[in-house]
Design brief:
87 residues; 87% helix; mainly alpha; 0% strand
């Protein structure tokens, strides 16, 4: 198995597990204000996992892609982050 794919999958499993645990915590707390606080914490996990998995994937593909293609991928990631993080 490709080590880059296994790292990407591991990060996604971690992210999914964090989402499920957060949902269970919200149910356990049973209060909107506390559930919103837990949900706000997840706002940091999503973009972080996105950046890490993209970086790992690009590292694994760096030898196969030309510099111009890597530049286009970088622009796409930048646009995603702008769309996610801009208020």
């Amino acid at each position: 198995m490709d080590k880059y794919v296994s790292w990407m999958a591991t990060l996604r499993l971690f992210s999914g597990s964090a989402e499920i645990i957060a949902a269970l915590i919200m149910l356990r707390l049973n209060q909107v204000d506390k559930a919103l606080a837990v949900n706000s914490g997840l706002a940091l996990v999503g973009p972080t996992i996105l950046l890490l998995t993209t970086a790992i994937g690009l590292t694994g593909m760096a030898q196969q892609l030309s510099w111009s293609k890597l530049g286009w991928v970088g622009c796409g990631v930048a646009f995603l982050l702008i769309g996610i993080l801009k208020k």
